[in-house]
Amino acid sequence: MGERVSERIAAIAESATLAVDAKAKALKAAGRPVIGFGAGEPDFPTPDYIVEAAVAACRDPRNHRYTPVAGLPELRAAVAGKTARDTGYVVDAAQVLITNGGKQAVYNAFATLCDPGDEVLLIAPYWTTYPEAIKLAGGVPVEVITDETSGYLASVEQLEAARTERTKVLLFVSPSNPTGAVYPREQVEAIGAWAKEHDLWVVTDEIYEHLVYGDAENVSIAHSAGERVIVLNGVAKTYAMTGWRVGWLIGPADIVRAAANLQSHSTSNVNNVAQVAALAAVSGDLSAVAEMRAVYDRRRRSIVSLLNEIPGIVCPEPLGAFYAYPSVKGLLGTSVRGRTSANSAELATVILEEAEVAVVPGEAFGTPGYLRMSYALSDDDLAEGIARIAKLVADG
C-alpha cells in the first residue's frame, strides 16, 4: 500500500499566517489575553451599502441558481470599469474571470500558465501561498532575495541574474505582502520593459492597490509589460471583505477562457450573493476606502516608531498594504526572558508564549530573520502589543 496522501498534496506547506492566527484565536478562546499581529485582514466591518446589496440579493430567486462560471456579466463589466478608473489599464469584460477570492485567482493563473519545469521568478519576501500555487501547477519557484537595505525592492539586475532559458513568468507584487514595499514608477516601468524584452509573462497581484501612503503611488506594471500580463485582484483588502471570497483574474481572452474552463471543473460560479456584494463595492466610490486608509496610515507610523525604539529591531518604513516587516536579526542568539532563539521562528514562539503576542516569522515568507506584523488591529492593541515585546526584550 502506498502513502494515504498523494505526494503532490503532502508537499504543500501549511499557510503559516493562518496557522499563527488560529493559534492566537485558540489561546484567546482559552482566556489568554493574546494580541494578534498575524492575520492580513482589515479590522473594519464591510461597509453598510455593500451588506445591504447582499441582503437584497438573498431574496432574489435569480441568485438561487447556477450562473456563468466566469462571473456575473454585470460584475465582469464593473471590474473592467473599475480597473480603468483606478489604474488606467483598459480591458474588456471578456478578459475578466471572477474567482473565489484572490487565492483562487493565484492558483488559476499558475495552473493555466505553467508546464512542468517552467520557472517562475519569485521576489522574496513573498506571500506564503505563491510558492505552493506555483509548485502545484508544476512550476519551479526561483527566489530573488531582497532585504531591508533596498527597502525590499528587487532590481532589474537581480531579476536578470535569476533568469534562465526555463524562465516563463515573473510574479510582481506592489504594494507587497509581507513587507509593505511599494515600487516607484521608474522601477515598475523598468521591470515591465525588461519582462517584455524577454517575452516573459508577468503575473501582478494588485490586491493592495488602494493602500498606499505618503508620497507613494500605485503604478500597475500592466502598462509596461506588454501583452503577456495577468492582473490579480479582489475586494478583500480594499473593502474589508476578506470573508466574502470574491477575487478576479484579468488577462488575454484565451488565458481567461482556459482558466474559466479549469474553474468549471473545480468550483463553478462564485457565490452569487457575494458577487452582488462585490458589484456594489466596485461600482461605488472610494470614500469608505479613504477612511480606512487614514486609520491604517496613523497605525503605520505608530508601529514603525515603536518598533524602532526596541534594541535589536530595525523596521523600514512600509509605504503600502498594512504590514511592517522588521528585522529581528539583532535579537537572535541573545537572551529573551532567559530563552535564546537561533532563528525568527523560535523567536516568534518565545514572543507568543512569554508576551502573549502573535507574530508571523520571516521563515514563512522565504526570508528568516524577520517578523511580519499586521497593523490592521486597534490602536490600543497595537500599542499594548509592542509594549509587551519591548518589555520582553528589556527583561533579557
Structure description:
By secondary structure, the chain is an alpha/beta fold. The chain folds into 2 domains: 7-45 and 288-395, Aspartate Aminotransferase, domain 1 (Alpha-Beta Complex), CATH 3.90.1150; 48-284, 3-Layer(aba) Sandwich (Aspartate Aminotransferase, domain 2). It is 41% helix and 14% strand. The protein has 13 helices and 14 strands. It has helices at 7-10, 16-29, 48-58, 73-87, 101-113, 129-136, 156-162, 185-197, 253-266, 272-283, 287-308, 344-355, 379-395; strands spanning 35-36, 96-99, 119-124, 140-145, 167-173, 201-205, 229-234, 247-250, 323-324, 335-336, 339-340, 357-358, 360-361, 371-374. It has a 7-stranded mixed β-sheet with strand order 2-8-7-6-5-3-4, sandwiched between helices. It has a 3-stranded antiparallel β-sheet with strand order 9-14-13. A two-stranded parallel sheet has the order 1-12. α8 links the parallel β5 and β6 (201-205). The model has no long low-confidence stretch (mean pLDDT 95).
